[in-house]
Amino acid sequence: MFCVDRRFFVNFDWVLLSLLFMVCGMAFLNLYSATYPPLGGMPPYLKQCYLLLMGVACIIFLISFDYKELQLWNYPIYIVTIVLLALVIFVGNSAGGAQRWINLGFFQLQPSEPAKLMMVITLASYYSRKEVANGYSIKDLITPIILMAVPFILILIQPDLGTALMFVIIFISMTVFAKLRWSSYIILGLSGIALAVVGWFFVLKPYQKQRVETLLHPVKDSMGEGYQILQSKIAVGSGGLFGRGYMEGTQGHLHFLPERHTDFAFSVWCEEWGFAGSFFFLAVYFFMLFWGLHVAMSARDRFGLFLAFGVVALIFWQAVINLLMILGFLPVVGIPLPLFSYGGSSLLTTLLGMGILMNVRMRRFQTESTLESCEL
Amino acid sequence: MIKWNFLKELGNISEHDQAALDGLRKRVLGTGVVVVFFVAIILLRLWFLQIHKGEEYKSRAENNRVRIREVAPPRGDILDRNGKELVTNRPSFNVVLVREDSNDIDGLLKRLSVVLKEDVSVLWERIRDAESKQRHIPVRLKENLSWDTLAYLETHNKDFPGVRIEVFPSRFYHYGDMAAHVIGYLGEISKNELEETDTDFYRGGDQVGKMGLEKLREKELRGEKGNSSSEVNARGFEQQLLTHVEPVPGNEVRLTLDIDLQKVAEESMDADERSGALVAMEVKTGRVLVLASTPRLHLADFEGGISGKNWSALLDNPKHPLINKALQAMYPPGSTYKMVTALAGLAKGVITKDTTFFCPGHIDFGNRQYNCWKHGGHGTVNLKRAISESCDVYFYQVGMRLGVDALAEYANKLGLGLKTQVELENEKSGLIPTKEWKKKKYGVKWQDGETLSLAIGQGFNLITPLQLCQMTVILANGGKRYVPQLIESVTDADGNVLESFTPKLAGELQENEKKYLTLIREGMVEVIQGARGTARVARIEGINMGGKTGSAQVVRLEQYKHLQEENIPYKYRDHALFICFAPAEDPEIAVTVVVEHGLHGGSSAAPVAKAVMQKYFANRIAVDQIRKAVTPQ
Q1: Of A45, A95, A204, B140, which has fewest CB within 10 angstroms of its CB?
Q2: Total of domains in chain B
Q3: Chain B CB contacts of A236 below 8 Å
């Protein structure tokens, strides 16, 4: 199956790999500062090293076969993920009132993370198979809606509203990208509004409503949710142009900043490296995403294109939501900044996604003849 | 090979596909615009926060060294009716750790474990329990420090960064476990309670009332929290107090209980390890003077959370200390129920003052023989004698003529079978059977023979000791059913009286029924003061008392019939009951005693009631004796 020939190196996406290295390097640097001094047990930066090694293994695994195989294995992957999500409800470890993890001994797996990637593969596979000239009608969308709704509901039960909403966002991004009819837009929009209204009054837990409300009136609750956002804004703002210096941020090191190595990791970066450092990071990060879009455009077929686009959308939206939260534009929803926030499941999932991008890029010229040469 | 074919097929891209692919590529280009849009927003916001407002936020970060702490209010005191302190606060000193202020928690805990004489693993356990809380919220490591430990930690506080001493008001019980069931205890607020109650006030780790009045009057007792903010330096040490808002102490709750009487009652109950309940009420107001349930709870065991061992010991105790037997346990009323039968008989015109029945020691009804407790029989008896000597046959006759529903009607009028509405949790309503009830419950018709058992207080009847006391109050005060109340007054910290006792009338007998009570009372006075009364042991010199004994069958087992009473296993022995009021001429107080498996009301329950009465009338008895001594006969 492995076809290691010259083209492997020629076609390999060295650009993406370098960008990835730069982002992960900055993330590692930041993690070391955010978790200093370590609290006993294995320090998080060391754990991050192991995770990155595992991530490299994941990438190598993912580029070793043609991404077409993902389409072949789509439904088995889907079913396994759903089973894991269901399992987490029954045997999962809980933290803060939500059941999100399955303990694998060496690793706390949060199945909702790989489920996001699974969603991308599933939708890419569906839309690439089903081609419609004038955009999809509502009838065409029934299958993908059901495919999306199952993990959405399972994650909502945990309960993890933020992650569940990511599924809706991925679905909307990829569906709109695949082109809809006007009637589909209207029907989907109206039912979306209806669902949101019903959700607000019957599904949302009081603490979740409170999060939305504190965004609207942050001063009301300066010890709770509003406190976190306020501290984050102070951290970011106090960075100024050049920052307070590495390991010198007071907001992070005096622990005013909550979740400073996970969801609010980028606040620490902003505080210590200032506008210049943040600009540099964002430039690298978003150039990486633009490169991802470039990979999508150069894909050799519909599946590859959808796949690459979906991976970019997944990373992009998580990043945008996390950054807007850190900057005080969105409520605290528990969405990490992919590759930058500490968290094993999220990191490995994002690296798997990167592997997919590289795979699509590598095989952009691949034709029948190369396949056959491979077989030899 | 099949798979390869599949891949080959997918690999073949037709002209049409190529066109569609180009269309999609254009759309990818379009999404680039969305990315640019969001990147622009994020960069603008960063510029706004870091460059435009950078200086402002920098100074806020400098000043952001203010830590806000809550100050727990002292909980309100609980007093008895005479102002004697039952429960007050005393400071308890706890060690807390603010995790984010400590660089080396592991080393710190090792050093602390030596000072606190506590295992490191125990301390780690506390830290782990608080894992989900924010790191600036203190974690309590140990409660109730001794003075020595306290002094050491205070003087060496530089060696323990992040460790603080928390002064925590904890409860002090001046009378030990007296009235434990009424007062109740405190415990750490549970997750459910946090979600149900107003979260503005409570936070995890707060102490709330878990039982009794501590729970029911939580809102009044808790007070208002204060807070203080202080500056911390770069290493997390507190430098300077910035603001301080004093907490508002909780309200003082004064009970109607008389702790001296309560003490006499509980100690007399304890004397023979009696398990049961004693209730004393003011006849003319409904104030509860004593409400005792034995065995008692040990309130100190509950402080800081009861241990699993103690808890299961409480659950396994065959005498059920967790139950407040005065209102949460139900007993057959035994002969005390004859008051109901008597009143119903008189009011329904079945008997009059002078109606007599002949008691040969038993009565035949249906195909069964119903015995009087006195096998030889009482001979010809009227109502007064029937009460004073507790003649069963007399009441069989009355009950037979009344029927079950008339009995139930008057039982309800005397408060039996109804909740008394006392301010304590889980009050039982007891059980007063009717024909309809039996039909519903068992689907079987009422048997007339059952009415006979009912008339002397056996059978389905169940009452609580509190109901029994309320009934005695009604008999003694001429027909007024007062709600038993426990709160004399509630006063806030500034001395404003927020609530004060007013009698609450739950019901009243009609005028034509009231007049029969005098006759019943006369019979009850004979029980104690008469030459042949069944409770002559309760007699107190100088005070005329009225009362009634009762014993309630627990089981009717043939195998124990031949045994001497003291040889019957404890749990099969009859319950002993006694009700009384005094002074007979103008009753002030009513006392009810139920002793579980105490066999006879006269021998087991009456002496306890007598002790309480003696205490209550102590002054008058003394005056009386002096008067007797000084005036020559």
Answers
A1: A95
A2: 2
A3: 46, 49-50, 57
